[in-house]
Design a protein that fits this description.
283 residues; D-Maltodextrin-Binding Protein, domain 2
Length: 283
């Protein structure tokens, strides 16, 4: 695997503006990015066409998933990291891995980086480096579309015996236990299995960040919905092997994308409440 940061000197390139054409609506959601400013473009590092190995789960819409009807992967991760690679002159190589091994794979250098809707926590910051945040999320509860027993997160928390599913090793699992206690929290290894258990009636709700929840609701139109109410906001950021020279380069590219408005457009396309699991939002 060709690792970033061990080659010859770094030259610079001037970023171009990403023009996103999408029919999902461009009104910013809280997962969006700051408005573009009028500062001149900043020179970005040139990584010389190197390969950057990116971990993806391919089962977590809208971040990364197999696009229905195509058999091909897509999502925010693919569009965002390809655009970052274009600006920094690197070639992303996406490799699928299960969520419970993803962070450790970045820690050990099996992967150079991952996005995958990873929340920023102090515990993770001790073993990986984080990029600047690219979005903000709140944890919500996803239920079957016809659920009538509770209309809000607070009502669910007070409902005796209601079972709440959460993915192992995810910050949502800790928040699920805090919300309803360990006895009512059911752990699953794979998020796809978790959602299927909810659809099948084996669970009463699933805890998920709102962006991911919108993705699953869009991928299962008419079968799922999100309850009213949310927990405190958290940041999403990309992760890198500790000390990687790739992190500051990606931060520079993200800064340029914030400044020219392309990150906001990308987030609005993929993170909109109207998201449906269809084709790519890339230009």
């Amino acid at each position: 695997m060709l690792r970033v940061g061990h080659g010859p000197g770094v030259s610079c390139r001037i970023p171009a503006t990403l023009a996103l054409a999408c029919g999902l609506g461009l009104a910013l959601v809280h997962g969006g990015a700051p408005s573009p400013d009028s500062r001149p473009p900043v020179a970005l590092p040139d990584l010389g066409g190197r390969v950057v190995v990116v971990a993806v789960e391919d089962d977590f819409p809208p971040f990364d998933y197999v696009v229905p009807g195509t058999g091909k992967p897509g999502g925010w991760d693919y569009d965002a990291i390809r655009e970052i690679g274009r600006r920094l002159n690197f070639r992303p190589e996406f490799r699928e891995i299960a969520w419970d091994s993803m962070i450790q794979g970045v820690v050990t250098g099996q992967f150079d980086m991952a996005a995958n809707g990873i929340t920023v926590t102090p515990e993770r910051a001790r073993v990986v480096d984080y990029s600047t945040p690219y979005a903000h999320v709140r944890q919500r509860l996803m239920v079957r579309a016809g659920e009538k027993r509770f209309a809000s997160l607070d009502e669910f928390a007070r409902a005796p015996g209601a079972r709440l599913g959460a993915q192992k090793g995810n910050t949502n699992y800790t928040r699920a236990e805090d919300l309803v206690g360990p006895a009512r929290t059911v752990a699953y290894d794979d998020f796809g299995d978790l959602v299927q258990a909810l659809i099948n009636g084996d669970l009463d709700a699933v805890i998920i960040d709102d962006i991911g929840g919108q993705g699953y609701v869009g991928a299962n139109a008419g079968r799922l919905r999100l309850l009213d109410g949310a927990l405190n906001a958290q940041d999403l950021a990309m992760i890198f092997t500790r000390g990687s020279a790739l992190r500051p380069a990606v931060d520079a590219a993200l800064g340029a994308m914030r400044a020219d408005g392309s990150l906001a457009r990308l987030n609005s396309a993929w993170f909109s409440p109207g998201f449906r699991a269809a084709g790519s939002a890339a230009p």
